[in-house]
Amino acid sequence: MNPLTDRQPIVVGIDGTTTALAAARWAGAIANRLHVPLALLGVVPPIDYPLAATASAGTSLLDELKAAAQHRLEGAFEAVHSEHPQVQIHQIAARGVPAHKLIEYSASARMIVVAANLGDRFSTLLLGSTALTVANKATCPVAVWRGHPDRPLPDERPVLVGVDGSPSSSAAVAEAFELAAALGVEVIALHVWNEPDLLQWTPALDDWAMLATQEKELLSERMAGWSEKYPDVTVTKVIQKGTPTQVLLERAEDAQLVLTGSRGHNRLTGLLVGSTSQNLLHHAPHLVVICRER
Prior knowledge:
The chain is elongated. Helix 1 (18-34) crosses helix 2. The chain is an alpha/beta fold. It folds into two domains: 10-145, Rossmann fold (3-Layer(aba) Sandwich); 159-291, Rossmann fold, CATH 3.40.50.12370. The chain has helices at 18-34, 61-83, 98-105, 120-127, 130-137, 167-183, 195-201, 208-229, 244-252, 274-283, and strands at 10-14, 38-44, 89-95, 111-115, 142-145, 159-162, 187-193, 235-241, 257-261, 287-291. The protein starts with 9 loop residues before the first strand and ends with a strand. The protein has a ten-stranded mixed beta sheet with strand order 3-2-1-4-5-10-9-6-7-8, sandwiched between helices.
């Protein structure tokens, strides 16, 4: 049974790695700014029978795994509590597959935070990973933390959000404004259009400059409501010709995190852009937040 039903916490997976500990510290900072609880989730994996022989005398392997998980949770708790003592922190040790448990908790979470190890950039395309599975299937926003373990906390750089008009993109915009407001930073709203794709689906246009102007106006319209809701958040609207993945990766270099919808259709091209979020997960230099419509 999921115990997190009273308030929506930020849930972060704890597996004993330095990146998971750094992700927990980042999640603690965000929970503090958003005034929500933090849940540290340690998962005891299923046990194959042949492994039972590796247990120490007088104990079962399950007992050892539970103790190790609890030890990791306590270490993460101390690290986060020392920085943000006012944040309510839950420690949860659960049995199961890590990705499955994180997806289960996403139903009642404000956000799931999962660390991506350096090797994930190269292995996930073929082997899969917890981070990739959770990002694809969780029902709440998923922050895939990748950065320097010694510098995990938010900073003054802007948050970057990709805007394409799809429902999941709108969810990413909403998340971007809430995070930017909590962190006191700027939002960079980026819309990317691609001329070759347009030609496949629309009549040939002679005045691409006019089209770019129209797209900029549409982007401004989509941002108008959010600027009214968050008047203290500075918004820079950028429209750029190119491919979404390439442009987002270039712009991500100067942002502290990048947000994108999990799946959407570009308003003009009608092409699926789910591959954009996948590419960001593999190649973005910093933290990536994947959003989908609830």
